[in-house]
Amino acid sequence: MIDDPKVSCDYEINPAIYNCPDYLAGTHNNIAIVNVSDGCVWDAEVTQGGNWIVCNSDGNGSGTIDITVIENSADTSRSGIIIVETETLLIVQPPDPWLTGVSSITNNALKIYPNPSEQNLTVEVMEGFANANFTVFDVTGRQVLTGKLTGIKQDLSVENLTMGMYTIRLDNGQESVTQPFFKN
């Protein structure tokens, strides 16, 4: 939406991912900056996760995005998407740790990047997960990719996945760890 037809509006959200600090309900201010020219108006719209994310941010020119989330009372992390024009902001909220039984060591066992990803997703794991089986699920819980890691760092091709939110789960036979990612 352009107020001044002489202004070219190029939108940018920075950062593109916001990780909620915990599973609790709360308001999170200034989680991302919307960069846009003066004279350009924008409205942040929750397109996924509207049952747990409230976002009433909008502006004329550059501004920030604020959200309010409800408590995640599940044993898995969840994610939502906020759209500003053509730009996407991924919101990730961790699970209730009392329900997961996952230790902080396990939470640090998996790093994935870049997130969002277009072609390859790099998976880095602690030694205990070096030969773990992996499964990628879409937002409906459907299994879309499986395999076995062959070391502590491996690239997984995600180029054939459609744009959207996914979760990768690693299982080493003794414990498992999950993490969401977004495919551009």
Characterise the protein shown here.
The chain is mostly beta strands and 184 residues long. The chain has two domains: 12-93, Immunoglobulins (Immunoglobulin-like), CATH 2.60.40.10; 102-183, Immunoglobulin-like, CATH 2.60.40. It is built from two helices and 17 strands. Strands 1-3-8-6 form a four-stranded antiparallel beta sheet, with no helix packed on it. The protein has a four-stranded mixed beta sheet with strand order 2-10-9-5, with no helix packed on it. Strand 13 and strand 14 (143-148) form a beta hairpin.
The helix/strand order is EEEEEEEEEEHHEEEEEEE
CATH architecture term of the largest domain: Sandwich
- How would you write the strand order of the largest sheet? 1-3-8-6
Sequence stretches where pLDDT stays below 50 over 5 or more residues: 101-105
What is the H level of CATH, i.e. the homologous superfamily of the largest domain? Immunoglobulins
Distance between the termini: 23 Å
Strand content: over 45%
| Overall geometric form | globular
Radius of gyration: 18 Å
Task: Kindly state the percentage of residues in helix.
Answer: under 10%
- Biggest sheet overview: 4 strands, antiparallel
Instruction: Count every helix, treating DSSP H or I runs of 4 or more residues as helices.
Output: 2
Short key terms for the protein model shown above:
Immunoglobulin-like; 4-stranded mixed beta sheet; 17 strands; globular; mainly beta; 2 helices; 4-stranded antiparallel beta sheet; 184 residues
How would you summarize the topology of this molecule?
Layout: E1 12-14, E2 17-19, E3 26-35, E4 41-43, E5 45-48, E6 53-54, E7 58-60, E8 63-69, E9 78-84, E10 87-93, H1 97-100, H2 104-107, E11 110-113, E12 120-125, E13 133-138, E14 143-148, E15 153-157, E16 164-171, E17 176-183
Parallel strand pairs: 2-10
Antiparallel strand pairs: 1-3, 3-8, 4-7, 5-9, 6-8, 9-10, 11-12, 12-15, 13-14, 13-16, 16-17
